[in-house]
Write a structure and sequence with these properties.
alpha/beta, Rossmann fold, 2 domains, 10 helices, about 15% strand, binds ligand L34
Amino acid sequence: MTLIDGKALSATIKEEIAAEVEKIKASGNKVPHLAAVLVGEDPASAVYVRNKVRSCEKVGFKSTLLKRPADITEEEVLELVHKLNDDDDIDGFIVQLPLPKHINEERITLAIDPRKDVDGFHPVNVGRMALGLPCYLPATPFGILTMLERYGIETSGKHAVVIGRSNIVGTPMSILLSRKSKTGNCTVTLTHSRTKDLPAFAREADIIIAAIGIPEFVKGDMVKEGAVVIDVGINRVEAPDRPRGYKLVGDVAFDEVAPKCSFITPVPGGVGPMTVTSLLLNTLKANRNEVYR
Ligand code: L34
């Protein structure tokens, strides 16, 4: 069993990005600038955005964090988005999700200029992704593809079972793995909460992408010997003995599943850091106008 070290891989890619930033500087061009909008006090979102800002600093990007209170109106968020769209110094920006319930996430996402949508959440980027056109790939699926590629994991002809159909992970992952491309060419089964006998599908998988948001949902008896298991879940479960009062648990029952796997990602230190690094890669693309020319 090989543990896919997302933290270490992410550090390696950040060094590569930092080297690119040095080249950009040396040629007298503007360094990449990422802005992040964080609304409200969701503690997990605060951690994720902090990791994004720190990673920008690490690679030499400029970053701007726009923190707003939970009671901000939808109109005010839209105004902020328009400002960021129009700000020539900013190459790309994200609005961290989830947003408070009174704000329509769809409306906010649609307001983002696709050219600055480094999350790849705007329908223009989602459509381009589905057609295999140049686009910003959503960061989590992008990070997963990068892990598969860098660990030399063959995907062509494999049966991938995606568990969960969210807009930001399950759905794009199923499309990307099935595409005719380097880390694609899989036969994909997309399973979800209404799937009948989901474990039977999981047992047939060469590659499992667990992104259903239920702690330790994937048990040992749901995994075939030699399978590749990518755990996208980051669930906070109460743990009074831990300093923070909680621990992070994936969507995979790691201790049961790991011994059966050829490759598996841990939580934390797996997909999470790769999500952050992929956002940096998208911002670099934005800075270079690689997607929209
Ligand atoms: N707009 N909203 C927008 N873009 C995104 O790409 C995200 N996502 C998801 C939630 N909402 C979003 C993230 O940023 C999930 N996500 C994310 C980012 C970073 C990490 C996990 C999820 C991460 O850094 N995880 C670390 C430690 C987490 C911790 O200590 O709590 C890990 O090792 O998994």
